[in-house]
Amino acid sequence: MKRNHNFNPRTLSLGLLGWLTLGAWAQTREVRVDENDPSISYLPAGSWERSTAANAMDQGGHHMTTFDPTATATFTFTGTGLAFLSPLWGETIAIGIALDGATPIRVDLTDPAALGGAEQGSTQPSAIRWSDLTLANTEHTVVFSMPAGDTLSVLDMLIYYVPDTTVTTTTSSSTTTKSTTRSPTSTSNNDTASSSGTKDKTGLTIAIAVVCAVGGLLLLALLLLFLRRRALRRREHAAWLKNTLPEEGTGLPPPPVQMDEVDDGIRAGGRRFKSIPSRKSLLDASSSDFGGGPVSMYSDFGTLAGYGGETTPGGRTSKLRNVVAAGQGGVPPLPMRRSEDVQTQQTATRSSAASPTGRKFMFGGES
């Protein structure tokens, strides 16, 4: 969308004039004087009356009224400007203002929209109804009076302006000194409320920014903690897999450990089992002990081989080394079956009993 860049020279000149005037008045502060301040001299005595009921329309809640055409209110100050504040009313009310001996100026305090209606009290809140901000910084005197032809005058509050040499705020029962920045064309008393509202908004904005910053830091800390814990769990899982799974590239578990000794004292289920030597190992052992002769199932040195042999002092039977012979493909020899041992023992017993000499029968000859 195209924008219109045309400008009005008159608007520009008024804007520059406003900025120059604002710059000239930027370093001033206002001093508020309420209607009951002792610096205001009301004459004649008793001609002015202060409102009894508090009214939110008034500055400070009250105002002064007079019905006396000769009544005056005099105020002396030193400053660069003066402003008069008052509510607007639903009836004809005016006041005359004479600054530094000049002819009084009539200031109408009537609300045209409410004039002639049922409401005769204040209809608009107190605000600046007259001001002169072009004064030299010297002593000035202002006199308030009832204009000719009027029957009622009201005075609510005065504000005068002084150079802002110090930034202080002092409050008494009737006079308030306050730092401010004003424009000489201002005709409203909403500056204080606007300033307070701006400060409140600024404070709220700062509070929201602080809360958002703290919340963002907390979220960032939680995110970092979560990432750290997840990385730790991944490292622990990788270590577990490395120690549990087979070596990479083999696809097979580690080879089993091959025992070359069989303990005759193996216990299982409370019973004691004895290892049975293989036939070949038994034959080889017998041949070496008896000079390579035939193997005997019984001898003077023991009972049936593999059963009832001598034990060690600790009660454990001797160990038989079961060595796999080379050339047999790594398959150990078959052990002698128990049924064959028993049958051989019974046959040998019967043969011994039938022998006339009573000698034990041996394979391959007599003993």
UniProtKB/TrEMBL annotation:
A Gene Ontology cellular-component term: membrane
PANTHER family, A to Z: MID2 DOMAIN-CONTAINING PROTEIN, PAIRED IMMUNOGLOBULIN-LIKE TYPE 2 RECEPTOR
Protein species of origin: Ephemerocybe angulata
Compartment(s) of residence: Membrane
UniProt entry keywords in alphabetical sequence: Membrane, Signal, Transmembrane, Transmembrane helix
Signal peptide span: 1-26
Bias (Low complexity): 169-197
UniProt region (Disordered), positions on chain: 169-199, 327-367
Bilayer-spanning residue ranges: 204-227
Protein name per the record: Transmembrane protein
Biased composition (Polar residues): 342-355
UniProt membrane topology term: Single-pass membrane protein
